[in-house]
TrEMBL record:
InterPro entries found in the cross-reference section: Kinase-like_dom_sf, NEK_Ser/Thr_kinase, Prot_kinase_dom, Ser/Thr_kinase_AS
One of the protein's GO biological processes: chromosome segregation
One annotated GO molecular function: protein serine/threonine kinase activity
Domain Protein kinase residue range list: 1-306
Entry annotated with the keyword Cell cycle: no
Organism expressing this protein natively: Hanseniaspora valbyensis NRRL Y-1626
PROSITE patterns: PROTEIN_KINASE_DOM, PROTEIN_KINASE_ST
Protein name: non-specific serine/threonine protein kinase
PANTHER family to which the protein is assigned, alphabetical: SERINE/THREONINE-PROTEIN KINASE NEK, SERINE_THREONINE-PROTEIN KINASE NEK2
UniProt feature coiled coil, ranges: 313-344
A Pfam family this chain is assigned to: Pkinase
Entry keyword set: ATP-binding, Coiled coil, Kinase, Nucleotide-binding, Transferase
Record-level GO cellular component terms: cytoplasm; mitotic spindle pole body; nucleus
Amino acid sequence: MNGSTSSNESNSTASASSFLDPLTNPKYLVRKDIKYNHMSPKERQQLIQECKILSSLKHDNIVNFLKIDFDQKFVYIYMEYCDSGDLSQLIQYYKNYNKQHPNNCKWIPEEIIWRVLVQVTLALWRCHYGESCNNIKTIFNQFDKPDNFLKSMAGENEHIIIHRDIKPGNIFLTNVNNRNYDNLLVKLGDFGLAKTLKSKNHFATTYVGTPYYMSPELLKDDPYSPLSDIWSLGCVLYEMCTLHPPFYNAKNFIDLENRIIQGKYNKLDKQRYSKNLRNIIESCIEVDLTKRFNCCDILNDIQSKIMYKSLQLEKWESTLEVYEKELINIEKKLEKKAQRLDRQS
């Protein structure tokens, strides 16, 4: 990539590269370095699958896949760099603060939780239905289920992608300034465990994911659908509200498995967060698949629609600011050109 430089950010398998964007400012990339010369055929196939999934997902709330290179030992995957860390770091910040100030605990503000909820749901809409959600005209409009909704839920939509590992560490943050989250932007990433469902016969039954966020159907080794991602999203939102996952107090894996299958967890504090938010979270962490929310159900909540509309307005305002800067730059160039012509005449 022209003008790129590279520096290690965390360990030998990941680094960040910077390059000069001619339209704006230097931007950072994440370069995922994967050693593949010792991989088994199955592992290489999984790597190819991840690249295919990443390259097919283009959405504002999904980490952008940019390019792939390779040499004799490594595959280099270049992705968008999210400059504000991930959701697990935000949760850990509040946990650390409360540990240091037990008599003056702070909790994640509800508006931040709504921002995360809506943006991750928009990313999942793209994954689960194979298309982006339409913009909302007014908060009084209802979102209609996509034409392929029933096929998606039945595993018959060839464009379905189930993430299968939604957790705080895979939800990345940008646009945070000095812990000011008023304009927080969220991007879903790390699709290494994702699976594309091409037909009903391919309905997933593989045991993958992070235990605390696994759905009951996955733990029971039952066929699972996009609703498994919704369960995991509910667990993440619950953790934002309480600073721990819903089934954190399980004594061992067997106990954890039983609690998840039974949907046994402590309900959210009614005094701390609104009924709308609590209702969405409880409807996501719902054992009964016929009652569990889907993306459409989540976005049709009035508070979700208000947040979505607010996010749209912020995006339009940001776009206008970019255009304004470009026009100012063009104007300056024209002025300099006019000055040169004046001096020549």
